[in-house]
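Two folds, back to back.
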Amino acid sequence: MNEEILKTIRERGLLLEKEIYELVENFGSPAMGKEFLENLEKVSGQKFITKNILNKNYEYVRGAISDMPGDKNVLEKVFVKLGLSVEVIKEKIVEQPVENRKMDYQLFYSDTKFGKKLEVKDFVGHFRSRYQQLQKILMQRPELKENLVSIGKIGSDRATLAIIGIVTEKRITKNKNLIIRLEDLTGEVNLLVKFDKECFSKAEELQLDDVVGVRASGSRDILFAHDIFFPDSFKFEKVRFEEDISVAFLSDLHVGSGRHLRKSFERFLEWVSSEDEQAKKIKYIFFVGDNVDGTGIFPGQEEWLELKSMNVQYEKLAEYLKKIPSRITMFMCPGQHDASIVSEPQPIISQKYAPELHELENLVLVTNPCMVKLIEGEKEFKILMYHGASLHVLINEIKELREIKAATCPAKSAKHLLKRRHLASSHGVSTSIVYTPNGKEDPLVISEVPDVFTTGEMHRADIENYNGVLIISNSCWQAQTPFEEKTGNFPNPCKVPILNLKTRELKILDFRDDSEVDDSGTWREK
């Protein structure tokens, strides 16, 4: 085998079945083989690459192989030997008419692999790349195109200009004005925002490490703000599919918890497998994290667990999911309670603790966050799934969210993530979101605006429409816990949003069993 591919295998600690070697050798170039193996490891989360791994990640393999140049007859023979579908490599040769193409999907996992000791340069590269990613977005805003300069080129004479910078400091003066320190790749400057300016409310909600654009006047000594612009998300066209199908959204099952709502969830499972016309239209289900309750998540948790082992919790979860019809494709990302590292982005749920999940043919395990693109012909319907650890930080730090008690309406908090085009802009403010830099790019930047942004974490169903993006905050399947009771959090359990991709009609169905839990989420003692 080519030395470059062997080096990749050694560096990433991969093991390949003999037949997989033959497949990679026939790709036409070592660079393609290297890229294929690296991406397959990322998509599957596996180090041992087998024929079964290729079959389970059919969608990735199909896209990767069909795009490769080379002798298709050789590849076809290899695929026949592997027992894989020859259609994988024939797809690009015989194009189906657009109207007859099968509905499909593409996955865009977050980069969760970083196999070396972290150094200062990795964090420097991380923030540099974040700045550059968001700078490109901000430069498209017409309000910033006139007199846009880098901070290092601001002169000593007063002028009106626009800059793009990352927030490194924020403080209030004795006159109740705000001073924001902004930095770009060329320098730093102080921005004064007077309390009587219209943009003062925008300045108040700025978080450390936010990247924003500013229109201001002044010199290199100090700038006076006229307006502040976030990267922001805009969706101008509503995608609708021709096929009459629907997507269901769930999160926070907390299987294994002593207050897991088993009867209510079984009502949902029974319904989704029924002959109900609405149930029969469901083609995809998204599970947005905290799928089990986990163990050792917080002190004293064992006292409240029904299933004490994480392996047993995942066995029970797999038992549930097997009842969902095989025609439905399920996507599942982890949350803080799942068998995955807590820092974000989170890798897929560990096979060590959840082997039964990895064996389910219609379950696709994805990272947190993950962009899923549902495809019909030339149309793409983009769904960004993120469990939502950073929502707590925003609710605590942003005045508007504190005043409306946004824990009860979490979709209003989620819109602030879309506004920033970042899923956790303040680095390291919570142990739940101390994500690992890769030194190349910031994986939590929202590089593409989704059609739907779906979150979990807050245990309440809530819907918002923000600049054309549909925000779906998901309910839970756990009654109010003692901790939630102490903090005054009242869950809104057993609600399932159902989105029709043809009509864009959204319904929220209630599967709550009165014998388990009341409408305010209070557990009915057994």
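---
second:
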Amino acid sequence: MTEEVTREVERPWLRHYEPGVPTTLTYPEIPLFQFLEEAANRFGDRPACTFFGATLTYRKLLTLANKFASALVELGLRPGGKVSLHLPNCPQFLIAYYGTLRSGGVVVPFNPLYTEREITLQLKDSGAEIAVVLDMLYPRVAAVVGETSVRHIIFTGIQDYLPPLLRLLYPLKAKREGHWVKIQESPTVHRLVRLLERASARPPQVEVKPDDVAVLLYTGGTTGTPKGAMLTHRNLVANTIQSISWFTMVREGQDTTLGVLPFFHSYGMTVVMNFSVRTGGHIVLLPRFSAEDVLKAIQRYRPTYFPGVPTMYIALLNHPRVTRYNLRSIKACISGAAPLPVEVQRQFEEVTGGKLVEGYGLTEASPVTHCNPIFGLRKAGSIGIPFPDTEAKIVDVETGTRDLPPGEIGELVIRGPQVMKGYHNRPEETAAALRDGWLYTGDISKMDEDGYFYIVDRKKEMIITGGFNVYPREVEEVLYQHPAVKEAAAIGIPDPYKGEVVKAFVVLKEGEKATSEELIDFCRQRLAPYKVPRFVEFRSELPKSLVGKILRRVLMEEERKMG
């Protein structure tokens, strides 16, 4: 048997690659920020990003990123030092992200919706020394930095990179909506625009190796405790190049991508931001998802690509005026983070004329590992086939050591250049997730004869709501803090818009009283909005195993039968 035939037997998916998609790739031995340097050299006058009508060219973005790198070094950041970003999608995110990498620092992205409790946990665990914060989030971060390693806060406002007229009007709008925050500068609190004005445009001379950690990206797990996945420059360079290879129609220096997927999430970071910068593409930045804003942006900027999550596509299709907008510029979209309903795929392709395919990834893999071919064989309900240079197989759930044949259900494990270095300061959890070079995903899956993979269930019992991960234990821990709660369990229940929403089951202490509204409000003060239970059901007892462990699976099965 020839080597090529052997590979096809071991990796049946290779025969379903589209013409033009290579089975193996060459990855440059470069730090990630070199993508921006190369784009500025090749496409200096082309727009890198547009934000509410204001554009930064690649040359200007590189200058600002280099200045930011110089400013960080001036503030005492050393190679390997951590910089936390508390920002939505805006030009400042790109400046701080590539600038931090250029300084030899490590980027630690935060969800801007995080509460003080969540910010504290992640800042402490990461050891971040400098925080870059949107001004309206400043009070939340400033309230907790005393408990952390943060020595400097750099703040910025949405208005800093708006067009001149909107910049003038923004303070009035912010004051009216209660978002205006007055921040006093000090030796440890710096305004970003002033810091950049003073900084040198000559970047610091720091050696950054491909295997150095570039981004510390937090993900939960079975325990609900956030873990920092250490993604190296090599990992992120590889996954960006793998993603680009899947799009055979990419035109360097010509494409436009709609940037509404949050960049603090690995999916938006790779398939929008790094993808676009590597190809000299133009990113249309939107700080939050609004169906109306997205429809207007598509009509105005004619994006070629619109990566998203099913919730976004559903919202657009259900918008009462969707037919009034011209969406025909869209060529291709990868949908990730949650299962893509077949009917949504069909309708979206009808409206746009482009292709919408389901993919799969996880933070620990930078994140993309699988995708359906864009113009080739697509299978409903499948996450598709592995990316170039990505191996995947199904192993038995009990030991994780026995490979299972096509059609059998087990745990999905993955190997490839995009797989993380490990978890920050978590040797035991790293050893459990990375075994003999394979990443154990915790997702219960199967592979068919053609090498297409299907997610059957989640070993981690994770809830995915609107593309965001919610870990039941985290919700439960907050509920347990309520004085009336004796026992609590959280599960995901189907939702036509968000895919899933959180439902909590609660047993109250004897003699205590509480309403569902009271418990939901209690959670709202301690959790990001998407983690807050939508429903609370009171029970006299919760199903348990022989050793007393609460069985979420039983609750999920009961909900399924009722639904």
